[in-house]
Amino acid sequence: MTTATATATASTTTDEQALAALQREHGPALLSFLSGLTYGDQQRAEDLLQETLVRAWQHPEAFDGPYESMRPWLFTVGRRLAIDARRSRMARPTEIGDGVLATTADPADITESAVAALDVRAAVESLSPEHRAVLVQIYFHGLSVNEAAETLGIPPGTVKSRSYYALRALARCLPGYARPGASAPAGR
Fold first, then answer.
1. Rg of the chain taking only CA atoms, in angstroms
2. Are the C-beta atoms of 21 and 55 separated by less than 8 Å?
3. What is the number of other CB atoms lying within 10 angstroms of the CB of residue 79?
4. Phi-psi group of 153: left, alpha or beta (phi > 0 → left; psi -120 to 50 → alpha; rest → beta)
5. How far apart are CA 37 and CA 49, in angstroms?
6. pTM for the whole structure
7. DSSP 23-43
8. Which tens digit of pLDDT belongs to each residue from 172-184?
9. What is the pLDDT, as a whole number, of residue 134?
10. CA dihedral in degrees (122, 124, 126, 132; nearest 10)?
């Protein structure tokens, strides 16, 4: 960095002593404010505090403003940075850690699907013949409730009821296959 560049940079940034005094005077209150905006995430709040102080360093003209205290300016900059950070995170897909990847089955691995098929087959076989017949018609043959009712010779309401209780029984037999976020149904 040349001497001319260093002089230009020094004149366009805030004095270090002024910035240190600013941080001592307003830092704790600003950190508390930012912690509330980040729902208690201390690391994000500290990052936002640091970025707010960088903005104060980059804009020495803010020190010459018409107000007595820099606190309103700092809080406004911090709030805007928090909003921008949140919008940025919302625009990106959620990051997943290595732990999730390690427990996720490889789609190319046919043994996983073969084991799952055997587990489902055994669970379906454990159902009563009436429940199994309804599931076979609806899920394996792809019939509607009315078509399954006609094929089985029972009312559509009975088909709905049997399929509901059959699926609940399967969920109890196959606890490891529950959808994420779905709770296990209560037994009947």
1. 31
2. no
3. 15
4. left
5. 12
6. 0.44
7. HHHHHHHHHHHHHHHTTT-HH
8. 888 776 555 454 4
9. 94
10. -150
